Amino acid sequence: MSSWSERSLIENISRVCSGSHKGLVKGIGDDCCEISKQGSWLISTDTLVDSIHFDRRWHPPALLGRKSVAVNLSDIAAMGGRPYFVLLSLCLPVDLDGEWINQFLDGAHEILQEFDTQLIGGDTVKGKELVITVTVFGQPQQCGSIYRNGASIGDSIWVSGVLGSAGAGLELLAAETKERMLDGMSRYQALINAHLNPLPRIEYGLDLAQSKMVTAMQDISDGLATDMAHICNASRVGASLEKNQIPFHSALPAAAMLLNRSIEDFILRSGEDYELLFTVKKECEKEFLRFMEEKGQTAHQIGMIRAGEGVFLQTESGEEEISFQGYEH
């Protein structure tokens, strides 16, 4: 017997996520929500399936609620925009515990509040497996959106933070769950948190758009090698990345050794870091760094855009192509 009903679930969602937001005319409760805002919209949607995109064995429901929203907010950040509204659709197994659902909703509501974003509707159905679909609506700033196709030869390549952490965190959790007890797991908590509770770089993306020096951008969801290739293909250019310039967390080397993996595998090929990958106009590097310092932000230059096609990694032993060596949906 199910511990929840669709009607009671919708009532609970309405209660947990009640509130008003500028531009919202009508929220949850009617056949449609209604919003009133002028200008263009940024719209993105993601579907997460149990045992494919997440694993309930180690992902607490509140953190999964946060992450389900965060990965969509990150898409808005990757365009240099600000999120406003979210739709949430859930396919829930009939035997799913009601308390699990409540904790999931609490987590989703928490991150919505953090980024001043309102849940305005969605759908709920019963099914054989847990499926979560989130759609986010945002808007660009007056300076416009940042697309993937604006990179030019001579532009520099940057990232907003450390890479490889989420992938390592996922493998640590999987290894621990398989009763392969790992020593000193607490030292890897930052890596585990990167997988369980990523934070979208909304304010960072807004700052990048305001700089008017960023030519192309996307978030790192499928791994640096693949996401850099997306920018190169869209912009019809190639890229050269410097291995020694790519930032990573201080705990990553020990985790990679413990998992019998290379640091390079994690920083290039594992996804879900949700840092921003972007290019800066040729010969604007010093001006860009000054701008970011004034905003209280740090940035890491990791390579250059070059002629041709493909993504290449520069190492001590030479050059290798790494295009599309990340996660494939």
Account of the protein in words:
With 329 residues, the protein is an alpha+beta fold. The longest helix has 17 residues, at 61-77. The chain folds into 2 domains: 6-140, PurM-like, N-terminal domain (60s Ribosomal Protein L30, Chain: A, 2-Layer Sandwich); 156-321, Phosphoribosyl-aminoimidazole Synthetase, Chain A, domain 2 (Alpha-Beta Complex). It is 34% helix and 25% strand. Helix 2 packs parallel to helix 6. The two termini are 34 Å apart. A 7-stranded mixed beta sheet has the order 8-10-7-11-9-12-13. The mean pLDDT is 91.
**What structural class results from the helix and strand content?**
alpha+beta
> Largest beta sheet: what is the strand line-up?
8-10-7-11-9-12-13
Outline the biggest β-sheet: 7 strands, mixed
How many domain regions? 2
Low-confidence stretches: none
Count the E strands: 13
Q: Could you tell me the mean pLDDT?
A: 91
Strand content: 25-35%
- Give the overall shape: globular
CATH architecture of the largest domain: Alpha-Beta Complex
How far is it from the N-terminal to the C-terminal residue, by CA?
A: 34 Å
Helical proportion, percent range: 25-40%
Q: What's the gyration radius in Å?
A: 21 Å
CATH topology of the largest domain: Phosphoribosyl-aminoimidazole Synthetase, Chain A, domain 2
CATH H level of the largest domain: which superfamily? PurM-like C-terminal domain
Q: Provide the succession of SSEs.
A: HEEEHEHEEEHHHEHEHHEHEEE
Task: Enumerate how many helices there are, as a single number.
Answer: 10
Return the CATH class of the largest domain. Alpha Beta
